[in-house]
Structure formats: structure tokens, C-alpha cells
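Section handout 9: paired folding examples.
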Amino acid sequence: MGEVVMYLYQLNISNFRKYGIKTMEEGKVTPGLSLNLNPKLNLIVGENDGGKTAIIDAVKLVLSTQSNDFIKPEVEDFYLEPGKEEKFRSSEFKIECIFKGLSDTEAKNFLEWLSFEEAAGETTFYLKLTFAAKREGKNIYYDIKAGSQEEGSQMDGKARELLRTTYLKPLRDSERELGSRRNSRLSQILYNHDAFSNEENHQLIKIIQDANNSISNYFKGLDGHGNGIADVEGKKLLEELNSYLNKFSREGNLLKTNFNIADTKLKSILEKLSLLLQNNKAGLGSQNLLFIATELLLLKRENFSGLKLALIEEIEAHLHPQSQSLLIEYLESVCNESSIQMILTTHSPNLASKVNVENLIMCKSSGVFNMGSTYTKLRKGDYLFLQRFLDVTKSNLFFANGIIMVEGDAENILIPTLSQILGISLSKYGISVINVGSTAFLRYSNIFLRENEAENMGIPVACVTDLDVKPSISGSTYKIGDRDNVTYEEAKSYHKQRKEELYTKDEVKCFVSDSWTLEYCIAAGEFQNEFFIAIKFAEYIENSEKYGLTEEKKAAGIEFVEGELSKWKQEQRTNEAIAYAIYNGYMLDKKISKAIVAQCFAEILSSLDPAETKERIKKDENLSYLVNAIKFAAKLGEEV
């Protein structure tokens, strides 16, 4: 593991872009964003307009970039509260970057600007840079100072150079950046690399000098030994060109030229170089990988005592999922094994699933949240669990405005259909349905619970679960702990309260079925007939991969269900007994797949009259827990 050296520890933003200021109860004003960063890898995830780019741009303003990107504050950078008129836009903003972990070698470069703090009886030093901007109309004035005191002091150019960051823009033109041109990014990287520190006598200079001599001789009609050559066309061309220049020249200022590859200054030579993949048909994704690999040349310099920080926006640009996975795994290993810090942004659930949750930072409308172990309610075992089982599908939760966690395939299939019929589009409300398995609710829901309970992520999380109390049709009693002869209603009440207390906290709320399981609830409710038909359809599908569900089988299934229901009702069975016979006596006994049943049932619901079906769903008390979970995740009131 690489030792922790100088890294960006904290970023404080006041009145910049979407981040204003906070006024505490005691009247104290604090930054709108105060973000602690990981010393190694930081992957910032979140939806569009979540504030990811504002964080990157704030760091760039303070530190500048290795590629000398043109950066200056604009009027739109000053905070404007949503819904307010332009005249209420802030007239100043401030960005603070605090660096920690400085080694002695690094610290000596910033001696006059260092600050000191006491912690656990040990004195450590840190470096704080402050970017302050003010505006008067459209005129903007700003300065950058260093030091812990409010006024600080100006930092000299040499020290500032050591703090420049590597930056890769989101829509990067890798081919252009690595091509030959004046002040190309490739030439900057090579010129600052240790391999080209011998600027006066580098081997490349001799190579270019020899090449220039050979080219010059050709245009003089000579070979390498000063003898004439048969091809004199080059000589004629140069003589003709110089004759024109002679006619254009004034007395005392004779113009003359000659051909060469480059002048013999090392920087000019490097500007003539280009870096190409050997595959001439390489696409944008491969060029992007080449560009990132080239930037690593500078970041991994061993003898550099400055800041090794890379900012990469939309790291997934032009890359297919497998390449994304390979890249992020490698970059994570680079950070862990070296002294490099990276701050990356992404919209990709694929990348979010590959990175350790502790390295994630979530951007939401309510703020920015580091997912490290000191900030969440996740336990050590939870992080290890998520590292094993947090896949691409589940990683959607990092980008959602609302979440419905379910414990099985049936709920995962049915909830989107119910939502659509109710007129609550999951996509429109930014709701993700996450199938976490039977007992993993806390593993995932604790992601959204903060150690500092004053922080609120503003993401409602609905945990949908079965009651798991099997009804006793014969009237037998239940046991709860050391209590015997407990009635079915008492057992239901006890287990429902226990689950709600276990899973409900802050923005996380548990929604428990009123009876045994989802399937039993549907069988006992308004859609008893349709659900029994779905079970029969699922039985046909599961047992006939070749032919599927034909119209003849559909008719036979409907006829069978109507016959069974008619017979049970003639026997005067209770509704609960009929539901038990449908779910336990037919579906479970025949081991019919819950997922296929849910799929068939969803298709049947979608084929019914939407308005009538919506009213039936709202009327069905057995489905109320699902309806309430959907409304909770969408932040809706009681009426839908």
C-alpha cells in the first residue's frame, strides 16, 4: 500500500454555483458545502445537476491545472437561490482547499504558509488555500491566498506550480491532445517527465540534428558524405522558393529558408511528437484509455514533491461496460499502491458497483455525502457484504431520488406495473426498485443513514417485506417468545411491529404485508380470480418451454380457475381459506415459480381497463402496503 502523502483533505464552498451558505441556530454562518475527501480514490456519483461538476470546477479554480486550462470566475458562478430574481445573486463567493498528510519533503516547499494543529497530543501541519471572488456588476475581482488566518498571504509562483492538478474534461478530444501541435498536452507531459530532464543534451536533440542535416543535404542535392545525388528536384524546389523570397526581401534584410523537421530545442521537438495506438482503427474509447495512461506518466513520478491529484470528469466517456470495469479497477489499485489521489465523476452504475462503497461520494439536491465508514450507519461487515454483492442493478440506488427495496423477484416485477396503473411513473419520479434478497435490508438501507443524524440525504427508502406469519386455517394458536396460545391476529401484530421497528429509521420506512406473503395477500384480495389464472398460466409456461402459452391453454386455464373457485365457494369456504388453497395448496405444492407467476399477473393487470383497475388496487386493503410504499418513495401524499 502506498503511504499517504499530501492530499486534498477538505473542500469548503460558500456561495459558489449551487452551494450557498448555512446559518446555524446560534447565528454562525458555515459553508454551503464542507466535504471531506478520501486520500486515495474518490468516485463522485449522482444525477444530472447534482453538483459534481461544481466540485471539480471549485478545485480547478483554486489549484489551476497542469495543462494550463483557461479558468476564471463568471457571473453565473455566484450563488443564486432557486426561484429568486437575478438581483438577489450573491456578490461574493469563497472556496477553501485544505491539504493534509504533508511529508517533510513536501512541507518544506510551503513553510511560510503552513498551519499547525494539535490532535491526540501530536502536532501536525496542514496547508489551506482560499480563493475569494467578488463582483461589481459584471466586473469580477479575485485573489488566492494561503494560510490559516482569514487574511492569509499570497503564495509565490514556484509553490503554486507544485499544487497544479491534472484535469481531464468530460468530452475530451484524446486524439487532438496527443497529436503534434504547439503546446500540446503530450508535449507538456513529456517535457515535465524525469525522462526529459536533460534539456540541453538530450538524445532526441542529436537525433533531430542528424535528421535535419540529412534533409538539408537532400534539398542541396547532396548525400550524407557531401557528394552529389541523382535526384536534384528537391534542390531546384528550394532554389526556386528562395528566389521568390529574394524578390520579396528589402535591402539589408535578405530572407532565406531551408527545410527541417523541427528546431533543436527540446520543447519544440516534443511538440512535433504524436502518440498513436498501433491499431489504426482505434475508436474514441481506446483513445480515451491512451490519454489516461499518458496522464499517469506525470502522476506516478517518484521524484516529484508536489501535489499528485487527478480530476477526471465522466471517467466512463466512450467506454463500454467491460472497459469501464477494467479501468476503474486499475485506477483504484494505482491509488492504493501509490501516493496518488483521484477525484472522478460518473453517471455509470457499472463503475459505482466496482468501487468500494467507502470510496463513493453521493451528490444529491440536499447535499454531498461521503460514504466512508465514519459518516454512515454502515458497519464494517456491511461494507464487506456490499463489496461482494453490490452489482450494477443494485448500484442504481446511488442515482435515485427514491428507492423501493424488495426481498424477491415477485415484488420486483409487480411494483413497476402497479405504479404505472396508479399513474406514478417510476422513471419520472426517479425511483429505483432494488431487489436485495430476503434478509439484507439493513445492509443496503443503512447506506442512507448518516452517523451525524442532523444530515438528511432527502432520499426516501421504502423497505417492502412479507409478514411471514402463516395463517392457521384450522384455528390453532401461535407462540411468541415464551408466550403460548397466541392468536393469529396477535402474532401478526407482534411480527409487524417488530419488523417496522427493525427497518424504520429517519428516511427509511418499512412496509409490511398485512398477511403471510405477497402472493397470499393478492390471493385474498380484489384480484383473486386474475391471480389464480396467472398461477395456472405460469404452470403452463414453466412446464412447456417449447410451445409457451397458447390461446387454447389460456382458455383451459381460465376454465379451470373458474371451476375451482366455484367449487370452493359452494363448499362455503372463507375467503382466507380460498386464498390459502390458491397459494399454499396449489402454487407452493406444485412449486410454481413466483417470478413467472408475477410476470403473468403483471401482464393480466396491464390488459385490464386502466381506470377500473386503478380503483380496484386502491380499494384492495391487501395491496395497501405496496401502494403506500410507492407513494412514500415518490414523496406523494395520501391521494393518488
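Moving on to protein 2 of 2.
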Amino acid sequence: MKNLIIGHGETLTLPVEIKSGSGPKAHPYSFNEARDKLVSDLNRVIHSIESKPSKQCVDGEVIIKFIQHPSYLAKTYYPKKLFERYGLKDVGSKPIQVKPRKWATKKHPEEGLSSCIFVAGKKSNFEAMLNDIAHERLPETSQTLIRTIEETSSFEAIEKIKFIDNEASNLKLEVVLHADTSNTKVNPDFSEYAGSLGGYVDWKRSKTVGGLTFVEVFIEKGKETELAEFSHLRVLRSMPKLRVNKPDLLRVSINEKFELPTFEPLKNNFKVCIFDGGIGSENIIGNWVNEIIPPDVQGSHPSLLAHGGEVCSTYLFGPYDTNIKSFPPPYTNVDIVRVLCPNDADPDLFDVLNRIENVLKQKKYKYVNFSLGPRLPVEDDEVHVWTSVIDTLLQDGHCFATVAVGNDGELSGDLGRIQPPSDMVNCFAVGASTTSDTNWERASYSCKGPGRSPGFVKPDGVIFGGSDDNLFKVYSPQTHSIIGTQGTSYAAPFALRVAAGVDAITDFDLSTTAIKALLIHRAYKGSKDINDVGWGKLPCTPEEVIECKDDEAIIVYQGELPSSGHLRIPIPVPEGLGLDCKWVHLKATFCFNANIDPEHPQHYTRSGLVISFRAHKDKKKDDTATHADTITFFSNEKMYEPEAQLREDAYKWETCISKEHRFKKSTLLAPVFDVKFHAREHGASPENKTEPLNYSLVLSIRAEGETETYNKILQQNQTLKTIRVTNRIRLTK
């Protein structure tokens, strides 16, 4: 009998007070240097404002760019207070690579990642700022913030245009405006301006998320640059197409005898949903599947029903096992929402997103799957509307969402990167592997990382999705046969089957972040590139997730981090390990859901963790020290590429981190993690009190040569309990 994972790790935790502090900041520029440069830049920008036509401005406002020096990315140096002093409004930001004039240290990179802040205001506001800076009428706090600014410039139209379809004579554009729900002037002013160019703005399906409004615009080709001159327009691009599966999809009929499991009604305390092309009423697996058709979806198409049915089948049964000639039984029933409309050869992304949003708002599903999305690579400096809308709906942690990363991985460079909405921080992005065996590789079509930072490690993991040499054999409800195919469309629901299966076969109340942490914790990367496979190849069965090796114990913590102070999380390395044990392996995976700011891609998550590892309680710097010394456990090393020049505290704002280390047994004595929850809002420190953060931690303790590790941990920590496997409750007739 295998040992199973242990729950209630949070009962070991306790609050602890730890003083923190840092030395004085080394500034690249003196105040006089920074002032002179800012005065020169503002003079030039204000001069350009004078020539901008009023019809391109919202209520006389323009947006200009303030670019910070790479040394000032911490939230304490975000210059929001400086802008507010002059009635200016920070409306968003984006990451940018900068080659500064000077650095504060001798050893430095040539370039650094910095923040480009978009600031809205009238000419008179910028002039007031200029006059105070030029005449040094500023408090000391404002002087410090001025020293953080590297450059100030206009926001040019050409910077806003991402992609234009050269084959179209009339453009269907996806436009992003700097406009939140409180701004009543931007939308009508933009409609009037677009109309003056012969364009039409479709406000019926517009989306406002955070400080951004996403909207469709129809306009004649050649007018896009002039449209981009509108002051509060941030981004425009030709509307991307919808991806459902591999464009040159290989589908082979497999002549195999098979059996479906006997139907027995299942009863679970959670619900599962798949968003796809529907399944149709005449199918053999209909007892397990409930189809929901939104009112605005009329009819269907065989190819959409085939894809939807096969995604459902993958979730219910997984891939066909050639050896046993059958499929395993489902863990749960599933709803499928038909979000694709067949009478449109180019499904409208906004219509599909509306249908998804209407369902997710109901918060009735704990598990959902997306094997569709916009067909375009993720961008570092902008967040797509699908990502923004769905990430916001998932940020409270009520739902675990698997998302296919896309099938353009064979394209070169950034074109092969993961596709929205798999770049969400509050989802589980799934890529495809060539096989479930030990000789697995990333499937060549599976889109690659990295994701945006935060959200850098994408995909979250890979699982079997098929390859040319090893097709994914799935039951097709449309033909009642086995189909050989491939794609991340199948990998994603396969991963969801494992995740929901863990929940279904255990008697423990696992949060969605705990499920995510368990899957990532159990992923195996080996020597594979993190950008190819994320955290690694995922387990293919729930049993692989919940079973411990003979010499290890896996403990699940599900707790709450206070908004102030530290939480001490003991690592229960057992006392009395045998003499044969020389090494102890520790692996820790932290996960949490985060509220987001889509208008600030670089500061996208509002929550972050600072984690200090104290290995030996008696190892202190001196006798006066209150706490044991810290050593590195989590860091940016081996996670971020050095040439990316990412911010030093990038790891802090990731919603999932996982590391494994080996320690000599003698170096560990009552080890702990001291965890501090940090909050920010729009890149700066939050103005209001922050609510506690729900977190999940999965911790492995493996002592080489010790077979009683598991039992000793339970004996020495009475509040910990083994998670039990339960017989799934089946309804009786």
C-alpha cells in the first residue's frame, strides 16, 4: 500500500515578527542632473502638444510617456504621488528595455528592463509640473521620485500599431483605449473621432477591465495610423483569428476494437465545464455530458461538434490504451458550453468571449477547460482582452482552468510563443508532449514560453497530446470510433482529467491553488528547457499525484498569509533520522491566485511573496540575533535567462514558484520558511488596507536511506493527517 500525501500542514504555522530594512539607495543621477534632463524633455513634449488637433484629444488631455531608470522598479519608487501633485493621472505602464545614460554601480549590464508609464493630463498640468521642477519648488519626496525618471517623451501613433492585415481593404481592428468605467469622455470622443475618419466603433461588445477598454473598430485600410493619433488609444491590431486546433490537423481513423466503460451516474460536490464547439444530442456519451447552448448560438457544424465531442471524450476517458483495448471510467460528469457559432467562417472573438464570460460569472464550476482562443503570440508589453477578462474572473480562486497553449510552436522566434489566454497567471497553461513514456519530448507544434513576467514560466507543464509518430487516440462521439490526432487541444482536457480526478478520489477539501501546486510539484523537467516544457511533464493519473515514494513524505499546506507581518512555516524534517541518512532533499511549491492590473503588464499581479529559508535554528550571526540565518532557497537563477535582464525582484511577483535542493542532514535543524505577503496596486503601494492572501504550499521531504520518514513525520506532528482515497459515491437507481 502506497503512502498518500499528508494534509493540514497549515496547522503547524504561526505568526512571527521579523524586522526588515535595507541600506541607503545608490542613485545613478544627482537631483540636478535628473532635473535638467526632465526640464528639457518636458519643454519638448509641451511644444509638441500645442500642435496636436483638439479632435484627437479627450477633453484637452494628451498622454505622454515617463520612462524610469532600470534601478527603480520597486513599488516604493513608482512616481504616482508626483503625478497626482499636478493633477496628472497615471493610466498604465508597460515594460521596456532601456540603455540609461549612467548606472549607480560599476558592474552593470548595458541595458536593463525598465517601466514606461503612461500619464494623462492637460497642457496646463504639465506646464505646472515643469515650472515647479525648473524652480526647485518641490518637497524632498518629489525630488527623489524625479531622480528615478530616465526620459520623458510623446506617445507616437506608430508605437501603438501592432499588426495590420495587408490583404484586407477594410480593416476589422481590435482597439485598446485608456479608459476605465469612471471615464465618461473617452468613449464618445473616440466614436466621434473614428467617425470623422469614416470608421465605425462597435460598443455593444466592448469590454472594460481595470483601466482598459477593448473594442472593435471597422475602418478603411490606410486610416489606421491617423486613428492611432487619438490621445487615449493604447494599441490597435487587425482582429486575430480564433484557434481551435492545429491548422493542418492530422486526423486518422484507427481500426481498433474498444469498449467504453459501463455508465453509472456519478455524484461529486463540484462541477466541470468545457468551452468548445458543442457535442450534439445524438451521441453515446450523452449520459456523462450535458450540453448548454447559449441563446445567441444557432445551429452547429460537424467539425465543431467533432472537436467539442473529442475534447469532452478526452476529459472523460483520456487517450485510448492500446494494451487493454478500453477506456478507464470518468471521474465526473461534464457540461459543455457551445460557444462557437457555425454560420460564421471567422468566429468573432468578442462574441465567443461574451459567452464564456456569462458562464464564468455564475461561479458554478470548480474546473473548466479552454481548447480555443485568439491565434496570436503573447506580447510582453500588452495584455490581450481574452487574458484580461478571464484572468479577472478567475482571480478569486474559485475555479481551476486548463488552457491549451496553442499549436504554432514550429514557427520561428516569438511567433511560436504561447497564445492568449494561456498567459493568464490564474490559469493552468498546458502544452503537449510526444508521449507519456520516459523518452518524452515537447511536441514540435506545442507553443513555447516564456510567458510575460509575472507569469514567466509558461506553459505550466506538458502532457501527452500526440505527435506524428505517436498519435493521440481519442474516442470520437460523432463517429463512434477511435480517431488518431494531435494538438494541445487534447493535452489541456487530459490535464484537467488528472486535476479533477485528484479531487474526485480523495476525501480532502483541496483548493484550486492546492491542485495547481500538486500538479506542478509532481511535474518532471529533467534537463529540458523551461521555455519548452515549463515545470515539466505532468502526471497522467491522479494516483501519480497523490502517492509518495517509499522514502518521502509530501505535505499540503492550505492557509492564509496576513497583510502585515510574517508567517512562519515549519518544515517538519523528522528527528531521529537513521545513521545511513546523509542527505535530505527538500522540494517546495508555492501557489496563489492574484488580483490583476491589465493596464500595467509589468506590474500585472497585485500580490507577491518574499520567502526566507532558515535551515538551522542554532546558526545565527551573533548571540543577539533573534532569528536563524537565512540561505537561498528560491531565486531567479535558472528560471530567467540572464540576457533577459529582468528585474531583480521578478520572482517575488510570480504566482507560482517551485524549487528543489539537497542538504546534508547535519545542516538542517528545525528548518522553516518565513513568508511575507507584499501587496501593490497599479505598480505602487496600495492606498487601502489589503486583505489576507490565500496560499497553497506543497512540500516534499525525502531522506536518503531512511524508510521511516513518512511515519516519523506523522508521529511527531499529531495535527497532520493522511489524505484518504474514497470510493466515489455513485447514485443508486
